[in-house]
TrEMBL record:
SMART domains: TPR (SM00028). PROSITE patterns: TPR. Keywords: Repeat, TPR repeat. The lineage of its organism: Bacteria, Bacillati, Bacillota, Bacilli, Bacillales. This is Tetratricopeptide repeat protein. It comes from Sporosarcina contaminans. Transmembrane segments: none annotated. TPR repeats lie at residues 19-52, 53-86. Pfam families: TPR_10, TPR_19, TPR_2.
Amino acid sequence: MDKKHKNEDRKIISFIPDGEFYYKKGLKSMQRERFDEAHKYLKRAVELSPNDPRILMQFGILVMEEGEFEEAYEYLTAAHGLDPEEEDIIFYLAEVHAHLGLLRDAKIYAEKYIALAPDGPLADDSMEIIDFAEQEESFSLDEDMPDSEVYFLQEKARKLMESGSFPEAIRILESIIVDYPDFWAAYNNLALAYFYIGEIEHAKELLYDVLEKNKGNLHALCNLAVFYYYEKDKEKLNSMLELLLKIKPYQFEHRFKLGATFALVGKHEEGFNWLRSLKKKGFEGDAGYYFWLSHSAYFSGHEDIAKEAYEMLTQLDPEKAGFEPWKNVAPSAARSDAYEQDRDFLISKILNQYRSERLLGYYLLGKSAHKQELISHPEYIDVDKLTVIEQLFLAHSLDYEFTLSDQFDHLFDRAIQTTDLLYEKHQPLTKQGTHLFQMWFTLCEVALLRSYHFRNPAALAAAADYMFRSSRYTDTTKTSIAKEYGISVPTLTKYVEQLMEFLPHFKS
């Protein structure tokens, strides 16, 4: 290799982009209004130079402009810790606290900026924050609001709960209530965390404690209603709902909590009324708000509003697309008296001790508007504990695409085709229809365990239908059933004989 090439290689090797390099590229991208590009560069700059307050501040400003106020708070707080007297950092801390509604702290930082830079370029903006905070303080009903550090500890705990990290969330919330024994929001979240890990009695005791010390705490009352609902304690639930129906909250937060609680426990009309009232008053809801508004609207008969709300939900959270409560629900099966829409019926099947009953529950989930609610509940379905057959029926209801790679996959696919044909004939399910399907899943379970081939789905559906109807109606004929399913009488007879082998009392 000649000398020239050696020098060029040395130059290439010596250039390693650092935080300053990406910081400058990020600033240029911001000047050109290429904000996605700026985000990428500044994020990389933070990764390479996590102790540079300028870089942390600039990335904090960018994510604040993107509306990610909690994330912006973390970066700006870190920058402030590294350079506590930097005026610009102090101003943007004031701004991010104002965005988060932590006006007391916003005012403190804005006043500090004015003290450090009374003629600074951001002095007028600081005065606006101070004026706004003082106006809001005169109307504030919450004089005991904890400082921003506690607020963010709680937000951190809430995010941990959303990700399923309940032990860590519990540790944070326990520490908060030790230092702030009157911060009731932490108690309520702690109760929810204990509830989700199965310590239900401990969760309820926390809420009883809140209500003893802070009578009428709406969040505690609503959380207790949810606990009673999941425990199926109808007496206590009804008593609590009687109380909640009398409450007429003024604050948006309380109206949202009350409406979402009513929607969750099945009081859809009441939930819809409260959630809809927020929209009429100009409330700008988050994804959770539009989720419950959509569900309560749909189940109370306001389908257009439900679809409008769900569209807003998917704009805020695109991952929710395809999980609409009406997805895969046939118009006729959407009737409120259809068993597919009976939440208690579905839960009784999913939690049944007999596998054939659970298979029926998993199948009907795919036809129900309650599907997302039930599969997301932490206590109802533990996929790891399901048998392979149960997992397959659940996957079918969740619209998984199957790869037919072996013989069992093919026979299961034909079992599903048979079940779908029966459902098409009998949906929406009446009480009698559920009895037919209970019989069918008893047969289907045994047939799958014996690796039966399900070669003719139409004939099998007809055979199951004939066996059920003929046991109840003397005028049922093979000719009429065969015609209904488009098969011959001999074919029907053949498959009736095959299915008879799977009846429990025919087992050897």
